Amino acid sequence: QVQLVESGGGLVQAGGSLRLSCAASGSFFGSNAMxxxxxxxxxxxxxxxxxxxxxxxxxxxxxxxxxxxSRDNAKNTVYLQMNSLKPEDTAVYYCNxxxxxxxxxxxxxxxxQVTVSS
Length: 118
Description:
By secondary structure, the protein is mainly beta. The chain contains no helices and 11 strands.
């Protein structure tokens, strides 16, 4: 059983910073990507950023230049440094661990709330 545990959410003023962490535990294997998605009220879940084990990254246009994703493969942990936060960044942020192709898997964390006040 794979478990993803997120931490670091909270309330911050616009222009501030937060750092999210997500630690994966359990049995999983092979090349995979870890990432962050978010879901605001009455909106669909959307990609924020992903990073592969080889540290290839992908960002949503809305966060480029403000957010930075990184991972520690030895700790099976992914981080999201969020700077210059805006009220529109307010959402529940979900951690994801995914392997595509043969022997694929797709795991989600429980979510952590990020609220940015104006």
